[in-house]
Amino acid sequence: MIEPGTVVELQVERQADFGVFLTDGNEDVLLHNNEMVTEQDIEIGDEVRVFIYHDKQGRITATMKIPEIEIGTYGWAEVVNVKEKLGVFVDIGISKDILVSVDDLPALDHLWPAVGDKLYVSLKTDRYGRLFGKLATEDVIQEIAVKTPAKGMRNTAVKGHVYRLLKVGSFMISEEGYRCFIHESERKEEPRLGEFVEGRVIERKEDGSLNISLIPFKQDQMSEDAQVIFNYLVNRGGAMPYSDKTPPDDIQFHFGLSKGAFKRALGKLMKEGKVYQEEGWTYSSDRKTT
């Protein structure tokens, strides 16, 4: 039986203007001219290695463009389309994109992969023989994961794609193949499934995996926070009714910062001579009269 999602060798049985028909002795399948990648003429009786899938009309068909991903093998596939209530489509290297069903995606839409994100997938078929993308399980990831060096990893940068979401945090596989965990306390917002993120190592675990943080070092974060405050100040004409005496709830509401982070960032701006405080207000220094 010729099964979608598999690579097989079939014999050329007959030719047509638009391609050739291949057979396994029991079933025939079309190899269209557009799906041939050889410069040599294909003759009746030749053995041809092809990947089997369904075309856009749902007909079983063959291609000589062999994808890395097939039933039983995994690889990275880029998301090329997102369809509400249906799922996301990924490119595996053939002329038809493959659907990863809504049933296999996060319950919250904003955590779905976006176009350009990448998923580590294999292929599966439903009871009608239709091909779908199959997300890698934790067991699959652990099989491909690379053990990290025993020393020298702390505070190094790591980049990679998120492959699993849990309430307590997110799992990522780095470009080097390191398996990484991002606790919910080590991120500003939850990354999407398949999103490419960059973090820093905060701990190497005994099994060779890593705990990482998406939150910058305190000094880097202070610079970001200071810029947020200064931009807010400029947009208000250089004056705002907030200072290091402002209640924490007001700071959180207007800036999304803790009181401590606000005071550190404000102190940085004052030390740099960019702002000054007066009677509970903060002003940009160019407003100060001499």
UniProtKB/TrEMBL annotation:
Lineage: Bacteria, Bacillati, Bacillota, Bacilli, Bacillales
Domain S1 motif residues, every copy: 5-65
InterPro entries per the UniProt record, alphabetical: CvfB_fam, CvfB_S1_2nd, CvfB_S1_3rd, CvfB_S1_st, CvfB_WH, NA-bd_OB-fold, S1_domain, WH-like_DNA-bd_sf
GO molecular function: nucleic acid binding
Pfam family, one: CvfB_2nd
Similarity-based family: Belongs to the CvfB family.
Protein name: S1 motif domain-containing protein
Entry-linked SUPFAM superfamilies: Nucleic acid-binding proteins
